[in-house]
TrEMBL record:
Protein's organism: Betta splendens
Keywords for this protein: Calcium, Metal-binding, Repeat
Domain of life according to the entry: Eukaryota
Domain EF-hand: 85-120, 121-156
GO molecular function: calcium ion binding
Biased composition (Basic and acidic residues): 27-39, 205-220
Name recorded for this polypeptide: EF-hand domain-containing protein D2
SUPFAM superfamilies: EF-hand (SSF47473)
Stored InterPro entries: EF-hand-dom_pair, EF_hand_dom, EFHD1/2
Pfam family for this entry, one: EF-hand_7
Amino acid sequence: MATDELSSKLSRRLQIEEGGEEPVAVDLHRPDDGADEKLSTANADSELGAKLLRRGELNEGHGEHVQPSAKVFNPYTEFKEFSRKQIKDMEKMFKTFDAGKDNYIDLMELKLMMEKLGAPQTHIGLKNMIKEVDEDLDNKLSFREFLLIFRKAAAGELSEDSGLSVLARLSEIDVSTEGVKGAKTFFEAKVQAISESNRFEAEIRQEQEAKKKQAEDQKQRRAAFKELQSAFK
């Protein structure tokens, strides 16, 4: 009898905790039904209390089953040493060799990239290239890790004969439109571009002006076309 009553109490308490029922006041001063029942109830309450505490920890994010919030990666704010155009050129190159379109470059895709650049690598060489910038240890390159290659190369942190150094050297970004006089290579352009004040804001304004001019040109072409149409009517 005591076991059935205890089971009913535990079931009701769990329903109240999950919002299934409203709590009901319980008379704590009812007569003692026996020492054995009191001991069983105390043990059950202790176990239930531990379960409820565990559930509270999970809900508050302290439990091991709660997934951490994903951090949004912004290349323009994290890699401020590169111009917007340079980052976009790197992104274009990254997407070109991301054959699986999963936002990663795996071992086989890196192999194809190095072959296209004219510097094929051995299997061990490719694995070492990934390992050098693979911060999350997933054996493939994210776009952020891809940018790390150029950051390390610019900072002189790569040996001249390493695969990553060869990759950075052979994938020079065109700086002809960067407005940096005498800059023939990506790294020379980068060093000089860093010293420009408000460079980031200026590039955004240039992009906006270019889009505005493009829209105006399209508007003028449409107007000219309509005028030409009316002349033949």
